[in-house]
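Hello K.,

You asked for the raw outputs rather than the summary table, so here they are, unedited. I folded two proteins back to back in the same session to keep the settings identical. This is the first:
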Amino acid sequence: MSEIVPARFGEVAAAVARIHADACRADEHPALGDAVWLDIERPGADSAGFLSEDRGYAHIARTDNASPRHWALGVVISPRARSSRLRRELISAAVAHVAAHGGGRIVFWLLGARPDDDADLLTSHFEPARDLYEMRVPLPLGLDPKWADGITVRPFEPGRDERAWLDVNNRAFAGHEEQGEWTEATLARRTAESWFDPALFLLAIDDRGLVGFDWLKVHEARNAEPQLGEIYVVGVDPRAQGRGLGWSLAVGGLDAVHERGIDTGMLFCAADNTNALKLYRALGFTVHRTDRAYEYEVDPT
């Protein structure tokens, strides 16, 4: 197994992509989240990769949220090389890296978790923490957004709306593990990605300013997957919650992606977010896949 330092991420990116493509074809869903690919392209100083020839890869990086900051782990293994032993070896290498860099909490998102994963990962000291549902709905919804009086909707304007959006996002997602406490650097990294389209970043404005938003992302068709229009994140300022604005933003955003010829909407929702699940199920969303976060608090060495 080779340890890959950030300066060499570009050298191994193609090999990691091949392993990931093999895994996607077998599983019909990705193994590595967007944050891993973003860090491979623009790595943090303490990031590291661990490559086991053409069999598997683990990536570890610090998150860039202001708080609570933690380490994010991603692991992908080729279908022809899958074994609990190889996964444990890759995880062990990442854990050792974290221990050598001050320790801290590692969060490992396992996409498409299976029933036997809990016991298997416990042998590496990772315990299940929370579940995330990938949900999908056929488009069009056949619904019309119901904007309250005084609400106008327009696209996000880079260079103008960053500060206002960060303020509303961090209030709407206060205490949220991944979406809360975003910084200007966090937002800049996301808006610099190739998929970012400000025309699909809808802002709801009232007489006091930004009050809600629906940020959408298009996933191109690949393997057996159709083209998808994702509600990347939708949020409402706490001062305006309970007035149906989230419902209207979701409907308006899905209409916007359907206008581009996309027939399937999708989003991710925490399994314990009962209010959001009630909303999304009322719109016709059903659970397509369950992802699970496993955590391990690592002591420094």
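The second followed immediately with the same parameters:
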Amino acid sequence: MDGLFAEDGWTAVPLLSAGSPIRRINIRNIMGTYRYNVVAFTNHGVHPGEASTFEDITLRDIHCAKSRRGLTDLPPAGPIWSGFSPIWIDRPAVVRHLHMEGYTRTEAQQACDGISIESGATVDGLLLRDCHVVNRTPGPIVLLRNQGAISNLALENVSQSSALGMLLHNSGTITDYRSSNLTGKHLEKLTEGV
């Protein structure tokens, strides 16, 4: 998949798996503003109880922000739902080998997390390379919020421009972690649950 653009789109690429695995997908050059997600790893309960698996997924050259019109979908108060994240991995997804390179988010509308992994989701082999967040909102943005289970997490050349945000917030588990060339407020709760 190459060359997707939308202004005020809903979700650019909804990957849905329930019972049949999604394998060997390359998605590149996604640009624009989106109300919900740029890429969503979900199942929507199509076949309750069936596996929701995604293998060998590559995301490259994503330049995105949240849609201004998407703000009307937000609740009047309280935290922003993780399902609004540009990259959303919903439970009970099992993702093996997710490679994300060249993700740039310049955000002026909505301070939601960049990548959310829900509790009950598993990611085996996650590489984030050349990922950058420029936060122009008054609130904090976390690049990667993990509430699930990650094994083999690598962050390479990753930056966050705002002192309000951070690169990684972990309230789930991370089995193995390595990083190089990180800029911004780095990590919070990295070892919790490890």
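The radius of gyration is 15 Å.

Happy to rerun anything if the numbers look odd on your end.

Regards,
P.
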